[in-house]
C-alpha cells in the first residue's frame, strides 16, 4: 500500500500511526515543531499524558479515556521514532522487549507454573522475578532503579517498598504512627527555633513517613492525595457557587462564613453518600 494511502486509511491501525510519526519527523517535508523535538523536550508531555489518562479513569470519563490513551500511545511512538533516527532501537524493538518481559514475568500463564495461587503470592513472585532481572543488570543496591524523576510522593513510596523487601521496615503500623508524631514534634521545634532549611528538612521527613504509613495501610499516597485534592476542589467550588448566589466572591467573605458554607457542603455530600 502506498504511504499516502496508508496515512489516510482509517483501518490501517498501528502501522498508520507509525507512518504518520515518520512523516511528521521527515527532515525535509515534516512539521518544523516535531522535527525540532528531542527526548528531553518530549518527556514532560509524556508525563502529562500519563496523568491525563489517570484523571479520565478517576472521573469515569470513558469517551475521553479513548483519546487520552491515544495521546499516551503517541508519546511512545514519538520516542521510538527519535530512537530509530539515532540508531538506538525501533518501535518493534519496544514491542518485542515488552512482550518478552510479560511472558517471562507470567510463567503461571505462559509457562508451566501452577496458575492456582493467590494474588498476594503472584505479587511476591512478580517481585522476585524483577529482583532477578535487576541482578542481571548489575543493580546491586536495593534502591537502584527507582526513577529519580518520579513524582516525589510516589518515589518515596517506592523507595520504602524496596527497603521493606530486604527487611528494613517497621513491623507494625503503630510504630509508623508514633514516628509521625515524633516527626511532627520535630517540625514544630524547627519552626520555633531553627531556620528555613531545617524547617524544610523536617517537613520533608514528615511527608516521607506519611507516605510510609500509606504503604502500611495499603493506600497508594499519590492516588490518595489526588483524590483529596479533587474533593477539596469540588467542595471549594461549591462554596464559591453559594457565595455567588448571595452576590459575593470569596474576597468579599470571611473565614467564618466560608467555613460554615464548607460544613454545609460537606454535610450534603455525607447525606448523599
Topology:
Elements: H1 3-7, H2 14-24, H3 32-36, H4 39-59, H5 62-85, H6 91-105, H7 107-110, H8 119-136, H9 152-165, H10 173-193, H11 196-217, H12 221-245, H13 255-272
Helix pairs in contact: 2-5, 4-5, 9-11, 10-11, 12-13
Describe, in plain words, how this protein is organized in 3D:
It is an enzyme of class 3 (hydrolase). By secondary structure, the chain is an all-alpha fold. The chain folds into three domains: 3-105, Orthogonal Bundle (Helix Hairpins); 141-219, Orthogonal Bundle (Helix Hairpins), CATH 1.10.287; 223-272, no CATH class. The chain is 74% helix and 0% strand. It has 13 helices and no strands. The chain has helices at 3-7, 14-24, 32-36, 39-59, 62-85, 91-105, 107-110, 119-136, 152-165, 173-193, 196-217, 221-245, 255-272. Helix 2 crosses helix 5, helix 9 crosses helix 11 and helix 10 runs antiparallel to helix 11. The protein starts with a helix and ends with a helix. The mean pLDDT is 90.
What are the key terms here?
single chain, 273 residues, mainly alpha, Helix Hairpins, 3 domains, 13 helices, 0% strand, globular
Amino acid at each position: 500500500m502506498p504511504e499516502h494511502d496508508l496515512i489516510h486509511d482509517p483501518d490501517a491501525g498501528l502501522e498508520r500511526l507509525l507512518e504518520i510519526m515518520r512523516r511528521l519527523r521527515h527532515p525535509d517535508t515534516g512539521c518544523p515543531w516535531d522535527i525540532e523535538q528531542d527526548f528531553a523536550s518530549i518527556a514532560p508531555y509524556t508525563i502529562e499524558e500519563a496523568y491525563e489518562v489517570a484523571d479520565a479513569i478517576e472521573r469515569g470519563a470513558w469517551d475521553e479515556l479513548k483519546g487520552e490513551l491515544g495521546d499516551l500511545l503517541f508519546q511512545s511512538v514519538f520516542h521510538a521514532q527519535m530512537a530509530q533516527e539515532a540508531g538506538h532501537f525501533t518501535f518493534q524493538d519496544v514491542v518485542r522487549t515488552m512482550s518478552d518481559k510479560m511472558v517471562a514475568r507470567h510463567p503461571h500463564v505462559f509457562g508451566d507454573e501452577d496458575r492456582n495461587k493467590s494474588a498476594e503470592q503472584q505479587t511476591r513472585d512478580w517481585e522476585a522475578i524483577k529482583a532477578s532481572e535487576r541482578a542481571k543488570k548489575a543493580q546491586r543496591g536495593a534502591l537502584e532503579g527507582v526513577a529519580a524523576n518520579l513524582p516525589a510522593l510516589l518515589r518515596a513510596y517506592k523507595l520504602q517498598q524496596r527497603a521493606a523487601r530486604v527487611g528494613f521496615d517497621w513491623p507494625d503500623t503503630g510504630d509508623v504512627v508514633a514516628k509521625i508524631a515524633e516527626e511532627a514534634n520535630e517540625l514544630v521545634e524547627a519552626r520555633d527555633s531553627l531556620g528555613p532549611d531545617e524547617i524544610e528538612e523536617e517537613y520533608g521527613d514528615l511527608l516521607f513517613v506519611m507516605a510510609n504509613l500509606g504503604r502500611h495501610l495499603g493506600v497508594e499516597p499519590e492516588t490518595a492525595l489526588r483524590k483529596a485534592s479533587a474533593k477539596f476542589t469540588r467542595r471549594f467550588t461549591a462554596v464559591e457557587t453559594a457565595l455567588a448566589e448571595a452576590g459575593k466572591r470569596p474576597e468579599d467573605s470571611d473565614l467564618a462564613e466560608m467555613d460554615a458554607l464548607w460544613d454545609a457542603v460537606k454535610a450534603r455530600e455525607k447525606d448523599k453518600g
